[in-house]
Amino acid sequence: MNPKIELFHGPNKFADSAGAVVEFEPPFNETLSADSIDKQWKKLDSHQGRSLWTGNQPENELSFVDLYTEIVSYFRQPVAVCDHKCISGYQIGNNQRAWIFLCHTHSNTANLILRSSMALTNEIFSLIVTGHPGINKLVPNPIANLQRQVANLHYSKTANILLTVALSRGIPTYPISLGGNIWQYVQGSLGRHYRSAADEFDSLTGDILCRNKVYSNELINRLGFPGVVHEVARNPDHAAKIAALIGYPVVTKPISAGMGKGITTSIDNPDELVAAFKLAASISPRGVIIEKYVKGTDHRLAVFGGELLWVMARYPARVIGDGVHSIATLIG
């Protein structure tokens, strides 16, 4: 096929945002029914066995380019580019060449989707037309594997919100460091760099204090505010000694992880403590915080420019029964 992929990191000849275009010569001239395609797709999606068609199944038979476009659209995460669609077409010359453009704020993600989707398209056509797998061996569970890779390349939920709002207001955005998830909003001297919600003027020491629970708790105590009684345990035996000293129930948590990762609350006995320590230690090998469990409502405060903008109370997930339906039904 000799595919040629070109990346665009900003406005380009195809669209007003980043993306990638692939040009290639279709290896198959045959067309396939949507039903036969979907059967092969579900076999490749051994992890979930879901249909390729997220909407109505096409009535007409599909060419190689048609299927390629459908698969690219399936994997494209419509984040911050919800108004853009995958564009495809043909160039007529000495050889029939096709091209597909994928509009995406993350050009590396577009590149990954275009390359992997071509391998999947070729595999499906090979299996149906020739009865044999394609030339290139696919990895186990290729669909689930590609979804994981796309998710790993993608930006955080906070960045997603900011990028979506910026595009809705016509504010230009550019990736500065794809691996570091750093984006520029606005052009020229007014432009600002952001990593998630942190900009270039945020304090480095403040960032360190926020990410290290031991440091932040020490700061709170030094400022005269009530902090949490805790110690850092090196191993399960050390954790048991700390818990006995400060008294059950206790909480275990990693030193620097966020978003509740590795945290176990309201631990009442040494047996529960061992399992909780292992969970936190898998994220925080330098040590695990053992702290006194404090009952109460969890609040999250948002401060911008030294001004408190909102406070959110967070409660544990729970299900309220109605006396009729099962818990599984209510959750669903």
Write up this protein:
The relative contact order is 0.08. The chain has a four-stranded antiparallel sheet with strand order 1-2-4-3, covered by helices on one side. It is α+β, with helices and mostly antiparallel strands and 332 residues long. Helix content is 35%, strand content 21%. The chain has four domains: 4-153, no CATH class; 157-202, no CATH class; 207-292, ATP-grasp fold, A domain (Dna Ligase, domain 1, 2-Layer Sandwich), CATH 3.30.1490.20; 298-331, no CATH class. The chain contains ten helices and 14 strands. It has helices at 34-44, 64-75, 107-130, 142-153, 157-168, 204-211, 213-222, 236-246, 270-281, 327-331; strands spanning 4-8, 19-24, 87-91, 97-103, 173-177, 182-185, 192-195, 198-199, 230-233, 250-254, 264-267, 288-292, 298-304, 307-314. Residues 78-85 have low confidence and may be disordered. It starts with a strand and ends with a helix. The longest helix has 24 residues, at 107-130. Helix 6 crosses helix 7.
Quick overview of this protein structure:
This protein is α+β, with helices and mostly antiparallel strands and 332 residues long. The protein contains ten helices and 14 strands. Helices cover 35% and strands 21% of the residues.
